[in-house]
Structures are given as structure tokens and as C-alpha cells.
Amino acid sequence: MNDNELNIKESILVLDFGGQYNQLIARRIRDLGVYAAVYSHKISIEKIKEINPKGIIFTGGPNSVFLEKSPHINKEIYELNIPILGICYGAQLIAYDFGGKVVKSKVGEYGKTYVKINKSSKLLKNVNDMTETFMNHSDHIQKEPNGFEVIANSDTCISCIQNEEKNIYAIQWHPEVKHTIEGEKIFSNFIFDICKCSKNWSMDDFIEKQVLEIKNKCNNKKVILALSGGIDSATVACLISRAIGKNLYCVFVNHGLLRKDEEKEVEKVFNNNKLLDLNFIEVDAKERFLKKLENIIDPEKKRKIIGSEFIKVFEEEAKKIGDIQYLAQGTIYPDIIESGLNGSAIIKSHHNVGGLPKDLMFQKILEPLKFLFKDEVRKVALKLNLPESIVYRQPFPGPGLAIRIMGDVNEEKLNIVKEADYILREELEKAKLPNLSQYFASLSNMKSVGVMGDYRTYDYAVVLRIVHTDDFMTANTVDVPYDILQKIMNRIVNEVKGVNRVFYDLTSKPPGTIEFE
Ligand code: XMP
Fold first, then answer.
1. Which atom of ligand 1 is nearest to the CA of 440?
2. What residue spans of 8-139 are helical by DSSP H?
């Protein structure tokens, strides 16, 4: 990834030591109007010089700095004359590297912890003398290094040290976590007062810069995009269309595995929309996909069949258009971080990255959202006038409803799951419950006996999945009020033909997955 592509002159470099909140640090800084990028702590000094950040942040992490195998940093970084802020593990690393003492605590500090500030400093300017923070550590700094001074303590630990001359700061708590009441103030002090950044990151700027860049790159060249109806590809479509208009070809492969009315939504926004200048090509491939999926039970096989069929359809359309130079994709920043493409450890190979193979007849890839977090994509999408139904759409797997149907896929089952899912979404959206990250209906492959009116039934069971998650790597089931669940159940068994039972899946991830496939 080349940050210069975005012409970012002032950025904060976040070096990842493996903590859970690392992406949050970058988001908080961006929210303050300064671009921040997350890189592995293994980044070379040359690369840091190339990026030329205004400040560097070391993140937290699960290790102990005094163990040999724990992640360390090339100490030349301290000679670059760039302000550094270490958080949690990052703070301990700074103390350790400069000769201070870091030890395992008898009792760790976890969760809400009050910290007393005992000296005025640039980093903690305007922070209350007694401030509520979020801690999450078992090691701590027992003795500050020479040249550093302690500026805050908790009841049991040194909580913050600084070397103002070198512009190096270390805090034990997590300002990126909202439970730290004055976290934003601390980041603001660091990036504006210490690093001397100016506010130069906003979604308006982003749109303008990207449109200009895409125009320069692709003017008079054809670009193709697989439009799925999801927010990422829809936003990419709007952005590129602003830059090159009719040279953009959006191919919407309707594989018939979409949620109820989803294709109508996509058509409404992209087909013959006078405000949007682009070519919209809808391919009705419903029968083709259903045929390929006949009698296929294994979800992995379904995924493979759908993936390869999708590429075939897409390639056929590309051939018809001819002379395409660029393939546009809706890759976003977490996809890149999670796939290890910015040099961080591979967490998982994300579905979107390389969703379409890169050698797919096209020479070049265009990924204008690859610098953005999801909530930033939402801001861009709203500024580009995408409707809220797309902007706030529930996450949806590429293989669609095929994997939310257990066993073989057929038209009857597709209809059932579409209707049940629609009812679930309608009721939950009405109920406006907090903390719902993802919710949908799946169809079990189980039929059982029931009774409706005076008749015996032998019908399917629908499974409801409603989860809260921060990062989609782990998830918990939501404690939905019983009356809401009961209403959903009632409506599904009454309104959806072929269903006589509704189950609520209580399984967390792990051991389950978010999808029920
Ligand atoms: P799991 O089921 O792995 O899902 O816990 C985590 C998140 O990823 C979504 N998901 C997908 N997204 N293509 C996607 O773009 C896929 O093939 C796919 N499979 C799962 C899932 O909906 C959840 O949000």
C-alpha cells in the first residue's frame, strides 16, 4: 500500500504490537481529522522515513517486554526525531528500551481505574487531576528510565511517563477505548500540540482527492466493477462514476441468492438513475446458479461453485464490453490489515481481498476505499447520496442465501428463508434494540410435525441468529426481549408457508460462526 497515492502529507503511524484495540487507535485519530495508518512493528526504518509521519504510536499487545520472543522495535526509531506515544505494551517497551524496569504485577489492573496526574505536561493538558481510565495489563513499569519523569500514577502502578526533550511519552492505560473518559483529549494533545499536525483528513477531502486521482489514472479507459448491492461496491461505483462517468461498467450478477427485494433496491439506485453517470448491466443468472447448486449439500462446495460461476458470468460480461483496463474492487482498510497486506501478521484471509482473481483479464486494480474503515465508508456513501437502506445494510455473505440454507438449495427453500429473514429484519428494525451487529434467518434442513388449524403439518424449522460483535472475529448472542422473539416467531409461522417451528440460536462465536451455514 502506498500512502502517497492519497497525497497525505501529515499522518500518524500506528505500529501494531498485537493488541486488540489497534485499529481503534487509528480510527480515533482519523476522527480528530488526521490520517492514521496501522503497520506492523516490523516495519523498516527506511519505510518509516518514506512515510515520514508526524508522530508514531506503539500499540498495546499481549506479551511481556522482558521476554526475548516478545515483539521489539528497531531502536533507531528513537533517533528519528519523531514524537512517540506508547500505549500499554507500547509504554512498557519504551520504558524497557531506555533502561527502566518493567515487571509482572502481583495483581493486574483491568477495567475502570482512576489515575492521579501529578505533574502538568503537554500530553495530559486539560485532563482532570483524577481521571477515569480503562486499563488492561498484568505487567507494569516499576521504575522509569533515566531522563524520564513520572507524570501520573494509579493506586498501584506508574501510569504515565515522559521525556519531553525527546518527545517520547508512555501511558499504561488505553485512551482509544471509550471507557477512558478523557481519551480523546489525550490523542488531541499528542497529535496537535506535540506532533503539530493540522486537521487535513475529512470525508469531503477524501472524495475530492479520490475523484481527481481516478480521473487522472483512468481517463478514457474502461473500468469494470462487480456491483453486489453492498455498501462497499455501491460506494466505489458512485465514486468512480463521478470521476469517469460512462467509462465505468457496473455488472450486477443477480444470482437469485439475494435477500427479499434486494435486486429491486440495486436497480432503483443504479439503473437509469439520472444523477448517476455509469453503465449498469444486470445479468439475470438465477436459473444458472440454481442449476449448478442442485443437490449440493456441503457449504464449502456451495461457496466454491458460486465463486467460480460468478467469475464465469463476470468474465463473459467483460468480454462483451471489451477493452477493459481496470477492475475496481470494494476492498476496505480492515480487509488489508486483516490480510496482512500492510505488513501486519495475517489474522485471516478476508473474503473481499482477491474476491475476484487479480489476473482476471484485467491488468490493473482500482481500490479507492482501501484506506477507509467501515464507518468512514458510510460517511462517504452518505455524502455521495446513497440511500440509507444501502448505507446501513446488514452484512451479507458473498454466496448469499445459499449458505443460509442447510442442505440442498431450491426455489421453495429460497422463498422461505427470504420471507422469514424479511420479517426478522422488519421487527428488529422496529424494535430499535441497541447492540445488534448482525441478524438474519437461516433455514434448517429439518422438518418436523406440527399442527395448524385442524391440520397436521410436516414443515421446516427456521433458525434466527442475532449477534453482537465488535470485530466479527468473536460474537455473542443478544438477549432479545422474549415478547419480540415471540412476535417474530408468530409472524414467521403464520406468514411463511412451509414453516412450522422457529428456533433462536444461542451459540456464541466461537464455537459457532456468525453465519449459520
Ligand atoms: P463468520 O460466519 O465467519 O462471519 O463468523 C464473519 C462475518 O463475515 C461475513 N461473511 C462473509 N462476508 N463474503 C463476505 O463478504 C463471505 O463469503 C462471507 N462469509 C461470511 C458474515 O456475514 C459475518 O459478518
1. 22
2. 22-31, 45-51, 89-97
Cell triple for residue 244?
A: 469517469
Residue 351 Cβ contacting ligand 1 at under 6 Å: yes
Coil, helix or strand at residue 79: helix
Indicate if the alpha-carbon torsion angle 317, 319, 325, 331 is positive or negative: positive
**What would the mean pLDDT of 414-425 be, rounded to a whole number?**
98
Max distance between CA atoms of the chain, in angstroms, equals 85
C-alpha cell at 206: 477524501
Ligand 1 atom nearest 403 alpha carbon: 19
From 470, 472, 477, mutation site for ligand 1 pocket: most ligand atoms within 8 A of C-beta: 472
Distance from residue 343's CA to the centre of ligand 1 (Å): 23
Q: Among candidates 85, 99, 23, which has minimal Cα distance to 55? A: 85
> How many angstroms separate the CA atoms of 218 and 238, rounded?
15
- Cβ distance 37 to 26 under 8 Å? yes
Residues 450-504 have pLDDT tens digits of 999 899 999 999 999 999 987 787 889 999 999 999 999 999 999 999 999 999 9
Q: Are 353 and 388 in contact (CB under 8 A)?
A: no
Q: pLDDT tens digit string along 49-64? A: 999 999 999 999 999 9
pLDDT band at 19 (very low <50, low <70, confident <90, very high): confident
Nearest CA to 247 among 283, 211, 215, 208? 215
Alpha carbons 116 and 3: distance in angstroms, whole number: 39
Give just the sign of the alpha carbon dihedral 461, 462, 466, 467.
Answer: positive
Q: How far is CA 487 from CA 13, 103, 290, 345, in A?
A: 49, 55, 32, 45
Q: How many CB atoms lie within 10 A of CB 473?
A: 13
- The whole-angstrom separation of Cα 83 and Cα 193 is 11
Give every strand in the sheet of 158-163, ordered side by side: 35-40, 11-16, 55-58, 84-87, 168-171, 158-163, 149-153, 101-117, 130-143
Backbone φ and ψ for 139, nearest 5 degrees, come out as -90, 160
Q: Round to the nearest angstrom and report the end-to-end CA distance of the chain.
A: 34
Write the burial class of residue 108 (CB in 10 Å: 0-12 exposed, 13-18 middle, 19+ buried): middle
The answer to whether residues 206 and 372 touch, using CB atoms and an 8 Å cutoff, is yes
| 176 catalytically annotated | yes
Contacts of residue 244, defined as CB under 8 A and 6 or more positions apart, other chains included, come to: 214, 215, 218, 219, 221, 223
